[in-house]
# Entry
Amino acid sequence: MSIIEIKNLTKIYDGSGFEVKAVNGINLSFEKGEFAAIVGPSGSGKTTLLNMLGGLDHPTSGEVIVDGQNIWKLKSRKLTDFRLYNIGFVFQAYNLIPVLTAKENVEFIMHLQGRSKKERDSRTRELMQAVGLEERMNSRPSKLSGGQQQRVAVARALASKPKFILADEPTANLDSKSTETLLDIMEHLNKEEDITFIFSTHDARVVKKARRVITIEDGKVKSDEVR
Amino acid sequence: MNYSKIAWRNLWRNKKRSLITISSVFFGVLFSISLTSLQEGSFANMIDNIVNFYSGYIQIQDKEYMENNTINHSFVPPSFFLKKISENKTISNFSKRLQIFALASSGDESQGVMITGIEPEKENSLSGLSKWVIQGKFLEQGDKGILLGNLLAEKLNVEIGDSIIIIGPGYHGISSAGLFPVKGLLSFPMMELNKMAIYLELENCQQLFSADNRVTNIIINLPDYTHLERVKSELQMDVPDELTVLSWEEMNEEITQFIDGKRYSAVIFKGILFMIIGFGILGTVIMLIAERKRELGVMNALGMKKHRITSVLFLELLFTGLTGVLFSVAVTFPVILHFLKNPIPIGGEMGVAFQDMGFEPVIEFSGQGWVFYKPAITVFILTVIISIYIVYAIKRLKTVDALRT
Ligand SMILES: Nc1ncnc2c1ncn2[C@@H]1O[C@H](COP(=O)(O)OP(=O)(O)O)[C@@H](O)[C@H]1O
Ligand SMILES: [Mg+2]
# Structure
């Protein structure tokens, strides 16, 4: 039983006078516990695909079914809640909230979920430990390196206990050392805690680590290999 | 970690800009409070003067008297009505007056004067007349002497113990004249009165003008003006047909109109001021939402509902306004409190001009609560209006686009 099913998903952007088929009739499904990479050159439609999968960008046609529910049938508010409880996001540009400390950034999601202070505290500590940053809990993002910020972002993505994590080129802004650390953390969380990761990349070193590689080109799936 | 904490920290992200915005609120409210306090203080002072020296809060008169204030429109107060007045629990004091314009002379000098027959004790507790006596003594029950304004005494060239002649039209045209010893001299802060006021005992006055038992006004005082309308309507129920109950506002329409006019232009002025401040704040809000577009998009992507995002921004706006208001109240409150206790005297020509117009030469402030909280409420309303833009901007925010910026 797959946790995500994508059916004939299409996104057409209206350019001035011409149409851009950013995603062009993609069909895919994901199982629990996957560690899948979406690979393709710049402009191939990776971000658009992940955004539609994450309930952020409205598809032109097609369906995204999570646990039997077409998420694009949900009203805007429900969809926001859906994201809050089901999806963890990691962005290329980290996107931590600048006025909050590392700890508060992780807590933020649980706060939105209305979890108790006790639960928030213990889970934040646990997650900051898992990403190796318990020492930097009280630092603001501006005081952290890019790699550290992205690790906080991973901790934040996990905080809500989501069904899966979507990461759009999470290592694109990182040096190779930080890339390796981040991937190790992600791999560890995937193996030990059975957390589903779907990430996009065009970095060969990242692709190497994936257990499933989906290649897209011009908005279409070129190949889909499980290793 | 709650939303107000995020809002508060956001407020201090761009310190310089926030301080400028807060300052604009600060100066606006400061100015507004000072202006209103000063204005209301001088109005209160004016009203006080008028109410105490001239009209009282409420007067009973003959219906014709306002139009034509001669002794022919005097009246004999019915005793049942006087009883009603004294039984009214809200009325603190009342006193009868017989007021007539007449001529006073001594030797070769003569002068138009305003004669007021008073009940000495009652009048004193009503208007505190005796405190203006600078020479001689205040009147007593059955007194035959008179009090006169010091400038009038100078003009007539009389001193305590001298006598003056008062000539005037008596009731129903009977011409009357009398000789009266000067018992005391008065010096009011208002020049006009000092030049023309003569006081004598009511019965004495009634005899002089052949107007036994007649009065022109019954002056009624209240603890403060808040009870005015109620007491007025209570009296109206009992007042005899030929008499009328007037409030100080009705007796002093010019002053009331003057005050209303001043208040109105101040409201317009403050309105424009706050509108300018409002546009300044709106500009800041537009800028900061544009700057934080991406971050706001991220919050929404992570699962923060738009109305929550709106609330956090509104809180930030509210904190801006509140900080400005609190600072200006903190600055103006002690200053106004000080001047409440120590009114600023006006010296020089200005002071004389004030006295000539019939007012005490002091600058007074008002410390009424609303002087402070009205501008605060205005700022609050301003933030609520500006938050309409926040609601609109966040509603329009496209999460994907924000993330791609
Ligand atoms: N908002 C947009 N409007 C128009 N075209 C867009 C928009 N976003 C993306 N595209 C186009 O869609 C295609 C896929 O973009 P994207 O999904 O960002 O690819 P990738 O993430 O693989 O680089 C590109 O040709 C891009 O120019
Ligand atoms: Mg992309």
Summary: Chain A has one domain: 34-46+72-226. Chain A touches chain B through 27 residues (CB under 8 Å). Residues 94 and 150 of chain A are 5 Å apart (CA to CA).
